[in-house]
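Input chain follows. Return structure tokens only.
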Amino acid sequence: MRILKRILICIFIAILSIVSYFVISGYTMYKDKIDEKSISDRIEELRSEENYTKISELPDYYLDAVVAIEDHRFYSHFGVDILATTRAMIDNVISLKMNGGRKFYFSAGG
């Protein structure tokens, strides 16, 4: 029983270390991007583009299609999809890196 307890403690410490590594790496990536250009500057840059369209100007069927394709559980979670977040964390652990090359898009909700 003592050996099992020690093994579980070691596994817990290993998992905690891995999660800590990815949290710190993700925060560092976030901080580096914010230091490059602030969020408000980036928002203004996007809004000034010729093809910028306000979400209120988009047809409902388009918004429904985006939700259906991108996040079919959008209306059933509370802003954070725990299942998708867990899956992404597992993918990062398996690949032993943060996927910083991907572009992330956040929805305005609703």
